Amino acid sequence: MRNAEPEYELRPIPFTEPWEYELHFPRDPRGPAVARTTLKAVLGAHGLGEFTDRAALLTSELTTNAVRHSLGPATVRLRWANPVLRVSVTDTCPLVPVLFGPVGADAEGGRGLFILDLLADDWGGCRLGEEVFGLGGKSVWFELVLGGGDRPPLGALVA
Fold first, then answer.
1. What integer pLDDT is reported at residue 2 of this predicted model?
2. What's the domain count of the chain?
3. Mean pLDDT over the full length of the chain
4. Which of 2, 32, 95, 130 has the CB geometry, 3.0–4.6 Å to 63, for a possible disulfide?
């Protein structure tokens, strides 16, 4: 006789229901590429392809900074609460970046926050206590709103 376990039909989470994914990665130059690939897979699986280009670029900026400027691991968290996608990157560096204004064409760095400010519907960051990774650190996040705002095309940022 077979064990009488109840059968449950496993159904995808409805589009309007919230969900969250989290990826932990070591301080490794491959981390940002892994984070982008994961983000693209999650957005595609949940039918949020509209966000893919902007979210991948912004996630790349934040994860690259995490690898460059912290001495430990990082975490990327994707959270959907219809109609908002929030992506946050947490690392062990306690310095929260600040946007000072547009960056000149001859600058060697500092474009990441400018791009974040241009393409995200909202963004911010905060310092974290020692409970994160046992070292302290920060979290920087951005939000994209479904069907939200008039944003410059990605090609306009290259010029």
1. 63
2. 1
3. 85
4. 32
Residue 125 buriedness (CB in 10 A; 0-12 / 13-18 / 19+): buried
The beta strands (E) that lie in 82-151 are given as 84-91, 122-128, 137-145
Tens digits of per-residue pLDDT, 27-51? 999 999 999 999 999 999 999 999 9
- Contacts with 30 (C-beta within 8 Å, 6 or more apart), sequence order: none
| Segments forming the whole domain that contains residue 81 | 19-149
Domain annotation covers residue 78: yes
**Residue ranges in 30-152 assigned as alpha helix (H):** 31-45, 52-69, 111-119
Chain segment 89-128, per-residue pLDDT in tens: 999 988 888 776 665 555 566 678 889 999 999 999 999 8
Q: What is the largest CA-CA distance in the chain?
A: 75
CA–CA distance, 120 with 100 (Å, rounded to integer): 17
Residue 59 token pair: 């996630």
Rounded Cα distance between 50 and 29, Å, is 27
Report the DSSP beta bridge partners of residue 138.
91, 127
pLDDT value of residue 113: 85
Tokens of 11: 């159904």
> Is the residue at 8 inside a domain?
no
